[in-house]
Design a protein that fits this description.
Structural class: alpha+beta
Number of domains: 3
Mean pLDDT: 91
Radius of gyration: 27 Å
Strand content: 25-35%
Number of strands: 25
Distance between the termini: 42 Å
Strand order of the largest sheet: 4-5-6-9-7
Length: 549
Amino acid sequence: MIWILSIITMSILGASDSNISFSTKESYEILFGANGPIHATTHITNIIRNGSENLTENEIDNLSQIGLSYENGEINTFTPNDLDQVFETEHFRFYFTYEGTDAVSDESYIYKMAEVFENVYSFYMDTLNFSAPVFDPALDDNRYEIYVENLPSYYFGITYTKNAEVISPACVSYIKMRNNYGGSQFSEHTEMENIQVTAVHEFFHAIQFSYNCYERFWFMEASAVWSEDELYNDVNDHYRYIPSWFSSINKSINNESSHMYGSFIFFQYIDEHLGGPNTIKLCWEKSNEMASPVQDNSITSINAALNDMGSSFEEAYLRMRIANRIMSPNAGIYSYEEADGYRSAGGYPVEKDIFFQPGINQSDSYQDLDLYESIYYSIHATEPVEVELTPYGENLSLISIIKLKDQDQWSIKSGNKINIDTEMETDWVSLLISALENGGSDWGFTIEFVDGYSEDFSMYRPYPNPSYGKPVSINIEIIRGQKISTTIYNVLGQTVWSSTKVYSNSEVNNFVWDGINNRGEKVSSGLYIVKAVGKKKTLTDKFIFLKDQ
């Protein structure tokens, strides 16, 4: 079906409360009242989608200052008609001028910008294999249009959608770039660096609009910020979003305030641990398949992409939240390559302190947790403490994160009841509580802290279970130094693998069993038992090992 993607179509999107996080009035106030650098695309798009609702006549008139017009009850875009110079490259057409307030300094400015955009084009199309933005069938060729002018002081750049006859859910777009990036408001980076991160960010919006013009803003902005560092790794403009994101414990990952720019860290986690940039592209392909003008499918699309990678949205979300507390480049699946930079920029979540006193039961509660929000606790205790989470009705996750003293090792446990043995030598102990999908709307909880118990050592559940052709990880957490013998048996009670190790300090030891027995032979698929024998106790568990097909 061919649709004209106009304000009529987009206003349907605006009719669903689930797809609105801020009003056109709020967008207007941000666009015209900014006192610092902003990405204006979201707020201009919001006005295009939802029209002039709640705007005064004077405010509607002011929209012409940012390239929007009001005609016959609709918001439309218009391009500048006073840019009298044109420069073309293989994939772009630049409109600019040497005269007036929109003037560029000289032709070299356009040449530099053109070189950056061609580099950005190659990055998305040749390296990452995204589909190119759809072009306006009314134009003579498929060069993408870029207008260079004197944008409002704090605008980096803007990607506009426009009415054009294309196949839904795609829509045509064009970009406006600044005629200079030399003002004090952009002084954190060089002019070239500002052009680079703005170009890669805004052109990703152009690509996004071609995949799904209805998509939620948080998904658009978070992945666009991710792309900045993917191509221009040394600029690190995205660090500006880290402090506010980590300080906002009461905001969901898909919150569409300025928080959404900091949500780039979720896509960064996916990039580093769940398939690389190809998975991000797959997220947008799923977005295209599930596009709807009335329903928010952003998380559903991401989940579908992660399912194809053997994971899920909730698994990636929880692992990302754990990584955010650990904040280390050396934490395996919970690491970030740029953790040191994130940390120095303010990359630690705010925690609530719990000072536990033995013999005195304590509790804390939270009434207003929303879906995909997380709360962190910092536990201060000299004796073992048992933590129990009581949800008020919906799906909550409780995870303990313990940093072993002077080691790049962390103990991670989950469950509604967790014992924390403080006899383990630690640098810090944290709890993570996250609200997950369960079809409800209330994720309040009470968390209780009571006297715990000494564990000597513990064994995590084997993972993955079933193994689905992958090696099985068996983690042994040693509280006090001792000798521990670990043995894997088949259902006949025969030993197939064994290991004995003497531990002198607290640590987490990860055994990875690839299905090879002590004779170097591949075992058959089936049920296996793992037993760990320490100085004072014995622990056992079961798992299913499946060979590669």
